[in-house]
Structure formats: structure tokens, C-alpha cells
Inverse folding.
């Protein structure tokens, strides 16, 4: 489990990378439902990644 903000961000960027790779294939296959789900998951990851205050804010 990630212990600091940098590790959390790295995991979220990895998730975005995977979604982008899957998105390329879905576009080639014209998989509309899959593309909609990928877009939804990307928004969820980006919301976590760019939230304020950051996820790993230590007090």
C-alpha cells in the first residue's frame, strides 16, 4: 500500500497509462461502450490525482 503522496501519484499515473493503452485498441475496434467506460474511469483517476488538498497530505 502506498505510504506517501509520490507513491499514490505514481500509481494513479500508471492507471492512466493503462487506460490510454486500452483506449487505443477500443478506438481501433470502434468499441463505443468500452470507450465510454474508459472515459469514466479516466475522470475518476484524474479527480483523485488532481484533487485539492492532495490525497497523501500528511499532518
Amino acid at each position: 500500500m502506498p505510504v506517501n503522496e509520490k507513491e499514490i501519484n505514481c500509481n494513479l499515473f500508471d492507471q492512466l497509462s493503462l487506460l490510454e493503452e486500452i483506449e487505443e485498441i477500443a478506438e481501433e475496434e470502434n468499441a463505443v461502450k468500452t470507450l465510454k467506460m474508459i472515459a469514466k474511469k479516466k475522470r475518476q483517476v484524474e479527480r483523485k490525482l488532481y484533487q485539492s488538498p492532495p490525497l497523501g497530505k500528511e499532518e
About this structure: The chain has two helices and no strands.
